[in-house]
From TrEMBL:
Origin: domain of life: Bacteria
Assigned keywords, A-Z: Acyltransferase, Transferase
Record-annotated Beta-ketoacyl-[acyl-carrier-protein] synthase III C-terminal domain positions: 242-332
Stored SUPFAM superfamilies: Thiolase-like
Identification of the protein by name: 3-oxoacyl-ACP synthase
Pfam families found in the cross-reference section: ACP_syn_III, ACP_syn_III_C
Domain annotation Beta-ketoacyl-[acyl-carrier-protein] synthase III N-terminal: ranges: 112-190
Acyltransferase as UniProt keyword: yes
One record GO biological process: secondary metabolite biosynthetic process
Transferase is among the record's keywords: yes
GO MF entries: 3-oxoacyl-[acyl-carrier-protein] synthase activity
């Protein structure tokens, strides 16, 4: 059986927001000069009343236009990831299926994949299709933290707030030889799972009522560890896939990664021995898109003609503080 990622479509909410927006709120911050938090020129924010389901519906429009409504409605499997679920007790899969008119046999919400969720979803989709659980899977990703968590009045003053951007993407995976998924590597590093924390002043659990707005609990020590892990993990999983498919990293036609900051992007392409023009980069336009980064960058590469029929694209990312990483290689067969 050959399973293919045959298309992806995306959505960016609202008009671009410039770095000047954050400059007007900026306060003294010990981490402001850290490479992790050097602001992109632009990013997008989800609207105040816009849900993750709304974002996915907008992202799916491109697939429906190119492949017809039935390609979405008749999908057997729906796999979703939402950075900030609209309701904390359950994911958005059920609501997304209803909005898109789907009645899938499988609805799975992935949370642990983080910025590498698209790769994890590709693996789950491929495995389910290969095991006979369906012929078509839809992967829906919604990144909606920038305009919500990071734009809170006391949080947008911090250096970390100016980096994230919002966006959504939907991928279509089918039993087909059009754009075969060549190999996937996923690794969990459970020892790092507790290193990403929520910081609230005064301290409280995220669900408790009280003053203070939550943000990511960054410190210089944590940042040093995350930089070291990310620099190592993304090339490691990419090299593992390259080894199994018999392609040297420097011979890849395109590398598509998550995009936390400029330093990671530079270090990853150098580790893969790739020139800048073969590493898709939308950081200045979109900021850190978290899990939506890979599919949005992939969509742009396809639309711009950077990814051509017959090319091998490597998608690779790490998540959170380094508790998960994944890479997937696809031989692109073109949109058609």
């Amino acid at each position: 059986m050959t399973v293919s990622l045959i298309d992806v479509s995306t959505y960016l909410p609202g008009k671009p927001i410039s770095a000047d927006y954050y400059a007007q709120f900026a306060e003294s911050d010990d981490l402001r000069d850290n490479v992790m938090f050097r602001a992109p020129k632009f990013r997008h924010h989800v609207a105040e009343d816009e849900t993750a389901i709304d974002m996915v519906e907008s992202a799916a429009a491109g697939l429906i236009e190119r492949h017809g409504q039935d390609a979405v409605v008749d999908a057997d499997i729906l796999i979703t990831h939402t950075q900030m679920p609209d309701m904390p007790f359950y994911g958005g899969g059920g609501g997304m299926a209803h909005r898109l008119g789907m009645k899938p046999n499988w609805v799975l919400d992935l949370h642990n994949g983080g910025c590498a969720a698209f790769v994890l979803a590709l693996k789950v989709a491929r495995n389910l299709i290969e095991s006979g659980e369906g012929r078509t899977a839809l992967i829906a990703i919604a990144q909606n933290a920038a305009g919500q968590a990071f734009d809170q009045p006391t949080i947008r003053r911090k250096a970390q707030a100016s980096v994230p951007g919002d966006g959504a993407a939907v991928g279509l995976v089918t039993l087909s030889d059009q754009s075969p998924i060549l190999d996937i590597e996923c690794r969990t590093y459970g020892e790092f799972a507790g290193d990403m924390t929520l910081a609230v002043d005064p301290p409280r659990k995220w669900w408790q009522a009280g003053p203070g707005e939550g943000c990511i609990g960054f410190t210089e020590s944590k940042i040093t560890k995350v930089l070291a892990r990310g620099n190592r993990q993304v090339p490691e999983v990419s090299y593992a896939v390259c080894d199994r498919i018999g392609v040297k990293p420097r011979d890849l036609d395109l590398l598509v990664t998550n995009q936390p900051n400029r330093a990671f992007l530079r270090n990853w392409r150098e580790a893969m021995e790739l020139p800048k023009e073969r590493h898709r980069d939308t950081f200045e336009d979109c900021g850190n898109l978290f899990a939506a980064g890979i599919p949005i960058n992939l969509d742009r590469a396809i639309t711009d003609g950077q990814l051509k029929k017959g090319d091998v694209v490597m998608m690779s990312a790490f998540a959170h503080a380094g508790d998960f990483a994944g890479a997937a290689a696809v031989r692109w067969g073109g949109r058609g």
